[in-house]
Amino acid sequence: MVLTGWAGLLAAVGVVFVALLMPSWAGVGVVVAVVLVVCVVDMLLAGSPRRLQLSREGDNAVRLGEQAVVQLLVANPGRRVRGLLRDAWPPSAGVLDPPHKLDLPQGERRRLVTHLVPTRRGDRHAEQVTIRAIGPLGFAGRQGSHRVPWTVRALPPFNSRKHLPSRLARLRELDGRTALLVRGQGTEFDSLRDYVPGDDVRSIDWRATARRGNVVLRTWRPERDRQVAIVIDSGRMSAGRVGDAPRLDHAMDAALLLAALATRAGDRVSLLACDSAVRADVRRPAPEDVLPSFVNALANVEAELVQTDFHIVVSQVLERLGQRSLVVLLTGLDPAVIEESLLPVIGPLLRRHVIVLASVADPRLTELESARADLPDVYAAASAARTRLDRDRVTAILTRAGATVVDENPDHIAPALADTYLSLKKAGRL
Question: Which CATH number is 1-155's, of 3.40.50.10770, 3.40.50.1100, 1.50.10.10, 2.60.40.10?
Protein backbone atom coordinates (compact mmCIF):
# COMPACT_ATOMS: atom_id res chain seq x y z
CA MET A 1 0.00 0.00 0.00
CA VAL A 2 1.09 3.56 -0.77
CA LEU A 3 -0.46 6.63 0.84
CA THR A 4 -0.91 10.06 -0.69
CA GLY A 5 -1.04 13.51 0.86
CA TRP A 6 -4.81 13.26 0.96
CA ALA A 7 -4.53 10.41 3.47
CA GLY A 8 -2.39 12.64 5.66
CA LEU A 9 -4.92 15.43 5.34
CA LEU A 10 -7.73 13.01 6.33
CA ALA A 11 -5.73 12.00 9.40
CA ALA A 12 -5.21 15.67 10.29
CA VAL A 13 -8.98 16.27 10.07
CA GLY A 14 -9.42 13.29 12.40
CA VAL A 15 -7.04 14.88 14.91
CA VAL A 16 -9.17 18.03 14.90
CA PHE A 17 -12.32 15.89 15.33
CA VAL A 18 -10.83 14.12 18.34
CA ALA A 19 -9.60 17.35 19.92
CA LEU A 20 -12.89 19.22 19.55
CA LEU A 21 -15.68 16.66 19.56
CA MET A 22 -14.49 13.38 21.01
CA PRO A 23 -11.38 13.82 23.18
CA SER A 24 -10.99 10.20 24.27
CA TRP A 25 -9.37 6.94 23.26
CA ALA A 26 -12.64 5.95 21.69
CA GLY A 27 -12.43 9.02 19.43
CA VAL A 28 -8.88 8.09 18.46
CA GLY A 29 -10.06 4.57 17.61
CA VAL A 30 -12.89 5.87 15.46
CA VAL A 31 -10.57 8.16 13.48
CA VAL A 32 -7.96 5.43 12.96
CA ALA A 33 -10.64 2.99 11.83
CA VAL A 34 -12.11 5.49 9.36
CA VAL A 35 -8.69 6.32 7.88
CA LEU A 36 -7.79 2.63 7.56
CA VAL A 37 -11.10 1.69 5.95
CA VAL A 38 -10.94 4.55 3.45
CA CYS A 39 -7.33 3.78 2.50
CA VAL A 40 -7.89 0.00 2.20
CA VAL A 41 -11.02 0.47 0.08
CA ASP A 42 -9.21 2.97 -2.14
CA MET A 43 -6.26 0.59 -2.55
CA LEU A 44 -8.56 -2.30 -3.48
CA LEU A 45 -10.32 -0.16 -6.08
CA ALA A 46 -7.00 0.90 -7.68
CA GLY A 47 -5.83 -0.87 -10.82
CA SER A 48 -3.08 -3.48 -10.46
CA PRO A 49 0.34 -2.22 -11.65
CA ARG A 50 1.65 -5.77 -11.76
CA ARG A 51 -0.84 -6.76 -14.48
CA LEU A 52 0.47 -4.13 -16.88
CA GLN A 53 2.40 -5.46 -19.88
CA LEU A 54 5.55 -3.49 -20.75
CA SER A 55 8.01 -3.59 -23.65
CA ARG A 56 10.63 -1.26 -25.10
CA GLU A 57 11.89 0.04 -28.43
CA GLY A 58 14.14 2.88 -29.52
CA ASP A 59 17.85 3.71 -29.76
CA ASN A 60 20.47 1.14 -28.82
CA ALA A 61 23.51 3.37 -29.32
CA VAL A 62 24.31 7.07 -29.25
CA ARG A 63 27.48 9.15 -29.37
CA LEU A 64 28.53 10.53 -26.02
CA GLY A 65 26.86 13.90 -25.43
CA GLU A 66 24.07 13.29 -27.96
CA GLN A 67 20.48 12.40 -27.15
CA ALA A 68 18.99 8.91 -27.28
CA VAL A 69 15.25 8.19 -27.29
CA VAL A 70 13.89 5.05 -25.63
CA GLN A 71 10.16 4.31 -25.82
CA LEU A 72 8.27 2.28 -23.22
CA LEU A 73 5.06 0.62 -24.43
CA VAL A 74 2.53 0.01 -21.64
CA ALA A 75 -0.59 -2.15 -22.20
CA ASN A 76 -3.34 -2.56 -19.60
CA PRO A 77 -5.44 -5.75 -19.74
CA GLY A 78 -7.04 -5.07 -16.35
CA ARG A 79 -8.78 -2.30 -14.41
CA ARG A 80 -8.02 1.36 -15.17
CA VAL A 81 -4.65 2.50 -13.80
CA ARG A 82 -4.06 6.09 -12.74
CA GLY A 83 -0.84 7.32 -11.15
CA LEU A 84 2.86 7.73 -11.85
CA LEU A 85 5.41 5.64 -13.76
CA ARG A 86 9.13 5.96 -13.11
CA ASP A 87 11.51 4.55 -15.73
CA ALA A 88 14.74 4.17 -13.73
CA TRP A 89 18.22 4.36 -15.30
CA PRO A 90 21.67 4.82 -13.71
CA PRO A 91 22.70 8.47 -13.13
CA SER A 92 25.32 8.36 -15.91
CA ALA A 93 22.57 7.57 -18.43
CA GLY A 94 21.48 11.21 -18.10
CA VAL A 95 17.68 10.86 -17.96
CA LEU A 96 16.05 14.19 -18.86
CA ASP A 97 12.40 13.39 -18.11
CA PRO A 98 10.55 13.43 -14.77
CA PRO A 99 8.29 10.47 -13.81
CA HIS A 100 5.50 9.99 -16.32
CA LYS A 101 1.87 10.61 -15.39
CA LEU A 102 -0.21 7.58 -16.28
CA ASP A 103 -3.94 7.28 -16.97
CA LEU A 104 -4.53 4.01 -18.76
CA PRO A 105 -8.08 2.60 -19.19
CA GLN A 106 -8.68 -1.11 -19.56
CA GLY A 107 -7.65 -2.53 -22.93
CA GLU A 108 -5.63 0.49 -24.04
CA ARG A 109 -1.90 1.13 -24.63
CA ARG A 110 0.39 4.08 -24.07
CA ARG A 111 3.79 4.96 -25.51
CA LEU A 112 5.98 6.78 -22.99
CA VAL A 113 9.20 8.42 -24.21
CA THR A 114 12.38 8.74 -22.16
CA HIS A 115 15.22 11.00 -23.37
CA LEU A 116 18.78 10.12 -22.38
CA VAL A 117 22.01 12.10 -22.73
CA PRO A 118 24.75 9.79 -21.38
CA THR A 119 27.62 11.44 -19.52
CA ARG A 120 30.03 8.48 -19.73
CA ARG A 121 31.03 5.98 -22.39
CA GLY A 122 29.85 2.40 -22.17
CA ASP A 123 26.68 0.38 -21.79
CA ARG A 124 23.87 1.90 -19.75
CA HIS A 125 21.29 -0.68 -18.64
CA ALA A 126 17.69 0.15 -17.75
CA GLU A 127 16.74 -0.52 -14.14
CA GLN A 128 13.25 -1.32 -12.86
CA VAL A 129 10.10 0.38 -14.12
CA THR A 130 8.04 1.29 -11.06
CA ILE A 131 4.31 2.08 -11.33
CA ARG A 132 2.32 3.67 -8.53
CA ALA A 133 -1.44 3.24 -9.16
CA ILE A 134 -3.68 5.48 -7.06
CA GLY A 135 -7.28 4.58 -6.23
CA PRO A 136 -10.31 6.59 -7.41
CA LEU A 137 -10.62 8.37 -4.04
CA GLY A 138 -7.01 9.55 -4.19
CA PHE A 139 -6.06 8.46 -0.66
CA ALA A 140 -4.06 5.29 -1.29
CA GLY A 141 -2.95 2.91 -3.98
CA ARG A 142 -0.69 0.08 -5.05
CA GLN A 143 2.91 -0.02 -6.24
CA GLY A 144 4.67 -2.58 -8.37
CA SER A 145 7.87 -2.92 -10.39
CA HIS A 146 8.72 -4.58 -13.69
CA ARG A 147 12.01 -5.61 -15.25
CA VAL A 148 12.04 -4.36 -18.84
CA PRO A 149 15.63 -4.91 -20.10
CA TRP A 150 17.18 -2.41 -22.48
CA THR A 151 20.72 -1.21 -23.11
CA VAL A 152 21.92 2.05 -24.61
CA ARG A 153 25.59 2.08 -25.57
CA ALA A 154 27.31 5.45 -25.27
CA LEU A 155 29.94 5.53 -28.03
CA PRO A 156 33.08 7.69 -28.17
CA PRO A 157 32.04 11.12 -29.46
CA PHE A 158 34.67 11.37 -32.27
CA ASN A 159 35.00 15.15 -31.88
CA SER A 160 38.05 15.16 -34.16
CA ARG A 161 35.95 14.29 -37.22
CA LYS A 162 35.89 18.04 -37.94
CA HIS A 163 39.55 17.67 -39.02
CA LEU A 164 38.80 14.86 -41.48
CA PRO A 165 37.80 16.94 -44.56
CA SER A 166 41.04 18.96 -44.56
CA ARG A 167 43.17 15.82 -44.15
CA LEU A 168 41.26 14.05 -46.91
CA ALA A 169 41.96 17.01 -49.19
CA ARG A 170 45.67 16.63 -48.44
CA LEU A 171 45.40 12.92 -49.05
CA ARG A 172 43.82 13.54 -52.47
CA GLU A 173 46.68 15.88 -53.34
CA LEU A 174 49.14 13.27 -52.17
CA ASP A 175 47.37 10.55 -54.11
CA GLY A 176 47.29 12.64 -57.28
CA ARG A 177 43.52 12.72 -57.67
CA THR A 178 43.14 16.50 -57.66
CA ALA A 179 43.49 18.82 -60.60
CA LEU A 180 46.92 19.93 -59.39
CA LEU A 181 49.86 19.43 -61.69
CA VAL A 182 52.13 18.29 -58.88
CA ARG A 183 51.88 14.59 -58.09
CA GLY A 184 52.38 13.13 -54.65
CA GLN A 185 55.59 11.34 -53.80
CA GLY A 186 55.48 7.68 -52.94
CA THR A 187 56.98 4.32 -53.79
CA GLU A 188 54.68 3.05 -56.56
CA PHE A 189 55.22 4.26 -60.15
CA ASP A 190 52.15 6.04 -61.51
CA SER A 191 52.83 7.65 -64.91
CA LEU A 192 55.07 9.89 -67.03
CA ARG A 193 54.46 13.57 -67.69
CA ASP A 194 56.33 16.55 -69.08
CA TYR A 195 58.64 18.51 -66.83
CA VAL A 196 57.23 21.71 -65.27
CA PRO A 197 59.55 24.35 -63.76
CA GLY A 198 59.75 23.72 -60.04
CA ASP A 199 59.50 19.92 -60.29
CA ASP A 200 61.98 17.75 -58.41
CA VAL A 201 64.79 16.98 -60.88
CA ARG A 202 65.43 13.68 -59.10
CA SER A 203 62.22 12.36 -60.67
CA ILE A 204 63.42 12.89 -64.29
CA ASP A 205 63.26 9.72 -66.39
CA TRP A 206 66.32 10.12 -68.59
CA ARG A 207 65.51 7.21 -70.91
CA ALA A 208 62.02 8.53 -71.64
CA THR A 209 63.51 12.01 -72.03
CA ALA A 210 65.93 10.70 -74.66
CA ARG A 211 63.16 8.90 -76.53
CA ARG A 212 60.75 11.84 -76.58
CA GLY A 213 63.26 14.62 -77.04
CA ASN A 214 61.88 16.67 -74.12
CA VAL A 215 62.28 16.40 -70.37
CA VAL A 216 59.93 13.80 -68.85
CA LEU A 217 59.30 13.02 -65.18
CA ARG A 218 58.18 9.89 -63.39
CA THR A 219 55.21 10.49 -61.12
CA TRP A 220 54.57 8.41 -58.07
CA ARG A 221 51.61 7.63 -55.89
CA PRO A 222 51.50 6.45 -52.32
CA GLU A 223 51.28 2.72 -51.82
CA ARG A 224 47.90 1.35 -50.82
CA ASP A 225 46.70 -1.69 -48.96
CA ARG A 226 49.26 -1.28 -46.19
CA GLN A 227 48.62 -2.37 -42.62
CA VAL A 228 48.11 0.21 -39.87
CA ALA A 229 47.89 -1.13 -36.32
CA ILE A 230 46.55 1.31 -33.72
CA VAL A 231 47.45 0.31 -30.17
CA ILE A 232 45.87 2.16 -27.23
CA ASP A 233 47.44 1.89 -23.78
CA SER A 234 44.53 1.48 -21.34
CA GLY A 235 46.71 1.25 -18.23
CA ARG A 236 47.14 3.69 -15.37
CA MET A 237 48.91 6.33 -17.49
CA SER A 238 45.67 6.74 -19.45
CA ALA A 239 43.55 7.29 -16.35
CA GLY A 240 44.74 10.81 -15.55
CA ARG A 241 42.44 13.64 -16.61
CA VAL A 242 43.75 16.19 -19.10
CA GLY A 243 41.36 19.07 -19.54
CA ASP A 244 37.80 17.80 -19.20
CA ALA A 245 38.40 14.12 -20.05
CA PRO A 246 40.80 11.26 -19.25
CA ARG A 247 43.85 10.79 -21.45
CA LEU A 248 42.26 7.58 -22.71
CA ASP A 249 39.35 9.47 -24.26
CA HIS A 250 41.68 11.87 -26.10
CA ALA A 251 43.68 8.88 -27.35
CA MET A 252 40.50 7.23 -28.63
CA ASP A 253 39.54 10.40 -30.48
CA ALA A 254 42.94 10.52 -32.20
CA ALA A 255 42.70 6.82 -33.04
CA LEU A 256 39.29 7.28 -34.72
CA LEU A 257 40.54 10.15 -36.89
CA LEU A 258 43.59 8.16 -37.95
CA ALA A 259 41.45 5.09 -38.67
CA ALA A 260 39.06 7.09 -40.85
CA LEU A 261 41.93 8.70 -42.76
CA ALA A 262 43.91 5.48 -43.27
CA THR A 263 40.79 3.68 -44.47
CA ARG A 264 40.16 6.39 -47.07
CA ALA A 265 43.80 6.02 -48.12
CA GLY A 266 43.18 2.35 -48.91
CA ASP A 267 45.11 0.91 -45.96
CA ARG A 268 43.94 -1.90 -43.71
CA VAL A 269 43.45 -0.77 -40.13
CA SER A 270 43.31 -2.83 -36.95
CA LEU A 271 42.84 -1.86 -33.31
CA LEU A 272 44.20 -3.15 -30.02
CA ALA A 273 43.52 -1.73 -26.54
CA CYS A 274 45.70 -3.33 -23.91
CA ASP A 275 47.17 -2.95 -20.40
CA SER A 276 47.81 -6.13 -18.41
CA ALA A 277 45.24 -7.82 -20.64
CA VAL A 278 43.62 -7.20 -24.01
CA ARG A 279 40.56 -4.95 -23.60
CA ALA A 280 39.57 -4.45 -27.24
CA ASP A 281 40.63 -6.27 -30.40
CA VAL A 282 39.45 -5.44 -33.92
CA ARG A 283 41.35 -7.17 -36.72
CA ARG A 284 41.14 -5.96 -40.31
CA PRO A 285 37.48 -5.06 -40.60
CA ALA A 286 35.99 -4.26 -44.00
CA PRO A 287 36.51 -0.59 -44.96
CA GLU A 288 32.85 0.29 -44.43
CA ASP A 289 32.92 -1.35 -40.97
CA VAL A 290 36.08 0.29 -39.62
CA LEU A 291 34.54 3.19 -37.70
CA PRO A 292 31.43 1.28 -36.47
CA SER A 293 33.55 -1.61 -35.23
CA PHE A 294 36.11 0.71 -33.60
CA VAL A 295 33.61 2.84 -31.70
CA ASN A 296 31.70 -0.24 -30.52
CA ALA A 297 34.89 -1.93 -29.35
CA LEU A 298 36.12 1.19 -27.52
CA ALA A 299 32.78 2.10 -25.91
CA ASN A 300 33.33 -0.09 -22.84
CA VAL A 301 37.10 0.30 -22.54
CA GLU A 302 38.05 2.09 -19.33
CA ALA A 303 41.47 2.98 -17.98
CA GLU A 304 42.62 0.29 -15.56
CA LEU A 305 44.68 1.27 -12.52
CA VAL A 306 47.42 -1.22 -13.36
CA GLN A 307 50.83 -0.89 -14.97
CA THR A 308 50.70 -1.73 -18.67
CA ASP A 309 52.61 -4.89 -19.54
CA PHE A 310 54.45 -3.92 -22.73
CA HIS A 311 55.62 -7.52 -23.17
CA ILE A 312 51.97 -8.38 -23.85
CA VAL A 313 51.56 -5.35 -26.11
CA VAL A 314 54.60 -6.19 -28.25
CA SER A 315 53.77 -9.89 -28.50
CA GLN A 316 50.18 -9.14 -29.50
CA VAL A 317 51.29 -6.72 -32.21
CA LEU A 318 53.92 -9.10 -33.59
CA GLU A 319 51.34 -11.90 -33.68
CA ARG A 320 48.94 -9.79 -35.76
CA LEU A 321 51.35 -8.23 -38.26
CA GLY A 322 53.35 -10.04 -40.89
CA GLN A 323 54.62 -7.59 -43.49
CA ARG A 324 56.15 -4.23 -42.65
CA SER A 325 53.41 -2.05 -41.16
CA LEU A 326 52.75 1.18 -39.35
CA VAL A 327 52.27 0.67 -35.60
CA VAL A 328 50.79 3.65 -33.75
CA LEU A 329 51.11 3.36 -29.97
CA LEU A 330 48.99 5.82 -27.99
CA THR A 331 50.48 5.94 -24.51
CA GLY A 332 52.06 8.32 -22.00
CA LEU A 333 55.57 9.71 -21.89
CA ASP A 334 56.24 8.83 -18.27
CA PRO A 335 60.06 8.56 -18.18
CA ALA A 336 60.15 5.73 -15.65
CA VAL A 337 57.62 3.63 -17.55
CA ILE A 338 59.18 4.28 -20.96
CA GLU A 339 62.73 3.55 -19.85
CA GLU A 340 61.99 0.57 -17.60
CA SER A 341 59.07 -1.10 -19.37
CA LEU A 342 58.81 -0.03 -23.03
CA LEU A 343 62.37 0.49 -24.29
CA PRO A 344 63.65 -2.97 -23.23
CA VAL A 345 60.96 -4.75 -25.29
CA ILE A 346 60.27 -2.44 -28.25
CA GLY A 347 63.32 -3.55 -30.25
CA PRO A 348 61.56 -6.25 -32.35
CA LEU A 349 58.86 -3.75 -33.33
CA LEU A 350 61.41 -1.12 -34.37
CA ARG A 351 63.29 -3.63 -36.54
CA ARG A 352 60.21 -4.89 -38.39
CA HIS A 353 57.79 -1.97 -38.48
CA VAL A 354 57.44 1.80 -38.59
CA ILE A 355 56.65 2.97 -35.05
CA VAL A 356 54.81 6.14 -34.08
CA LEU A 357 54.37 6.88 -30.39
CA ALA A 358 51.67 9.45 -29.66
CA SER A 359 51.12 11.00 -26.24
CA VAL A 360 48.60 13.50 -24.87
CA ALA A 361 50.43 16.37 -23.17
CA ASP A 362 48.92 18.36 -20.32
CA PRO A 363 48.52 22.07 -21.26
CA ARG A 364 48.44 22.84 -17.55
CA LEU A 365 52.21 22.30 -17.47
CA THR A 366 52.77 25.24 -19.82
CA GLU A 367 50.60 27.45 -17.62
CA LEU A 368 52.47 26.41 -14.48
CA GLU A 369 55.85 26.92 -16.10
CA SER A 370 55.05 30.52 -17.07
CA ALA A 371 53.69 31.57 -13.64
CA ARG A 372 56.09 33.50 -11.37
CA ALA A 373 53.78 35.53 -9.12
CA ASP A 374 54.87 34.16 -5.72
CA LEU A 375 57.04 31.49 -4.13
CA PRO A 376 54.56 28.59 -4.57
CA ASP A 377 54.23 29.56 -8.25
CA VAL A 378 57.99 29.47 -8.64
CA TYR A 379 58.19 25.97 -7.15
CA ALA A 380 55.31 24.85 -9.39
CA ALA A 381 57.06 26.35 -12.43
CA ALA A 382 60.28 24.53 -11.54
CA SER A 383 58.39 21.24 -11.23
CA ALA A 384 56.64 21.81 -14.57
CA ALA A 385 59.96 22.65 -16.25
CA ARG A 386 61.50 19.48 -14.81
CA THR A 387 58.60 17.44 -16.18
CA ARG A 388 58.96 19.05 -19.62
CA LEU A 389 62.69 18.33 -19.70
CA ASP A 390 62.07 14.70 -18.75
CA ARG A 391 59.52 14.35 -21.57
CA ASP A 392 61.97 15.96 -24.02
CA ARG A 393 64.67 13.54 -22.90
CA VAL A 394 62.42 10.52 -23.36
CA THR A 395 61.33 11.85 -26.77
CA ALA A 396 64.98 12.14 -27.83
CA ILE A 397 65.70 8.57 -26.68
CA LEU A 398 62.75 7.19 -28.63
CA THR A 399 63.66 9.22 -31.71
CA ARG A 400 67.25 7.92 -31.65
CA ALA A 401 65.86 4.39 -31.36
CA GLY A 402 63.92 4.92 -34.60
CA ALA A 403 60.43 5.84 -33.43
CA THR A 404 58.48 8.94 -34.40
CA VAL A 405 57.08 10.77 -31.36
CA VAL A 406 53.96 12.95 -31.40
CA ASP A 407 53.51 14.83 -28.13
CA GLU A 408 50.64 17.32 -28.33
CA ASN A 409 47.90 18.89 -26.23
CA PRO A 410 44.41 17.33 -26.27
CA ASP A 411 43.10 19.76 -28.89
CA HIS A 412 45.97 19.04 -31.27
CA ILE A 413 46.87 15.38 -30.74
CA ALA A 414 44.34 14.02 -33.29
CA PRO A 415 45.22 16.32 -36.22
CA ALA A 416 48.96 16.07 -35.40
CA LEU A 417 48.79 12.27 -35.55
CA ALA A 418 46.90 12.44 -38.85
CA ASP A 419 49.55 14.82 -40.24
CA THR A 420 52.29 12.43 -39.15
CA TYR A 421 50.56 9.60 -41.03
CA LEU A 422 50.34 11.76 -44.16
CA SER A 423 54.01 12.73 -43.83
CA LEU A 424 55.05 9.08 -43.63
CA LYS A 425 52.85 8.37 -46.62
CA LYS A 426 54.42 11.18 -48.60
CA ALA A 427 57.94 10.07 -47.70
CA GLY A 428 57.18 6.56 -48.98
CA ARG A 429 57.82 4.95 -45.60
CA LEU A 430 54.53 3.00 -45.71
Answer: 2.60.40.10
**Is 276:304 a contact under the CB 8 Å cutoff?**
yes
pTM: 0.81
Residue 407: beta bridge partners? 359
224-426: which CATH topology? Answer: Rossmann fold (3.40.50)
The per-residue pLDDT for 185 is 43
Q: Using CA atoms, how far apart are residues 409 and 31, in angstroms rounded to an integer?
A: 71
Domain-by-domain residue ranges, the chain? 1-155, 188-221, 224-426
What digits encode the pLDDT tens for the residues 334-359? 999 999 999 999 999 999 999 999 99
CA 341/CA 147 separation, integer angstroms: 47
Cα-Cα-Cα-Cα torsion 12, 14, 18, 20, nearest 10 degrees, comes to 70
Which are the contacts of 358, defined by CB distance < 8 A and separation ≥ 6?
Answer: 251, 254, 328, 329, 330, 331, 405, 406, 407, 408, 413, 416, 417, 420
Dihedral angle of Cα 282, 285, 287, 293, to the nearest 10 degrees: -50
Residue 107 is given by DSSP the state T
* pLDDT, tens only, 84-106: 999 999 999 999 999 999 999 99
Q: Is 205 left (phi over 0), alpha (psi -120 to 50) or beta?
A: beta
Q: Is the pLDDT of residue 144 over 60?
A: yes
